Amino acid sequence: MTTYPTDEHGLIFRSTALAAGYTDNELTRARRRGDLVSVGSGASVTPAERTPEQLHQLSAIAASKQATKPITLSHQSAATLHQLAMLKPNFRRVHTTTGRSHGAHRSSTRHEHTGTLTESEVVVVDGVRVTSLERTAVDVACTTPHGFAGALSVFDSALRAGADSEVMRAMLRRRRHGVGHARRALHHADGASENPGESWTRAQLIEAGLPIPRLQHEFHDEKGEFVARTDFDWAGLLVAEFDGDVKYRKHLKPGETPFQVMKREKVREDALRKLGVMVIRWTWKDLENGVVAAQARTWLTRLNLVAA
Description:
alpha+beta, 3 domains, globular, four-stranded mixed beta sheet, Transcriptional regulator, AbiEi antitoxin, Type IV TA system, 13 helices
């Protein structure tokens, strides 16, 4: 197997490869064979199992490393460096913020944003300049095409990562496009929400005017034994669980299959029902189809948790 010169991120730059004795023809053939995967102009990586977020992170780092002058990664690109979870992110372009009020450019692979950056709004992550955790979350929240749900998802994730809500609230006092739904989302943001599916669920419940559920509550039996930790619950009477692929992968034990995880979930659900708790479930498709709030309302009404 051919060994290519890589940097600390596993990136293989054309200039470095050429200096090591490889030719452009050899690099082109390697990409055609699948021995190299392009992550931007003049940059590649060896093939591996990577998420879209991880691939974009490499593209963003490569763009930063190859820039002729210092750039600051921002928006979705900075979010991948901060490991912020976003609702259906678009990773087509590498995003940067210029620090100026005008003169930004956009191409098929790059998106420059205008806007001033204070000293505290720029940090270094993995050796590259990026907008701070709080500024990144605010930028994504104000520009997401998914409105309130997209803003809530990134703010939930930012709070999980330790972002300062007061700093973000201060940033949102500035006038900018999208600030209205971003302010509302920050008001409802909760770091206990574990993934974009759970955030999108809450967004649909909130927009339907339903009671906001408790998050990640632990249930115990009459002996005090632990039974379950649930995604959502209302008054300990109704539990709702978001069934996403990420959730099942997260709960996999060594040597266990997703089917075995589902069986454990069934046992867990039966144990909750023995406590007199009703359990309902929904999936990503239910969120896409917008049926979650109606399902929740039906059971909240049956259990007298909301007025009929």
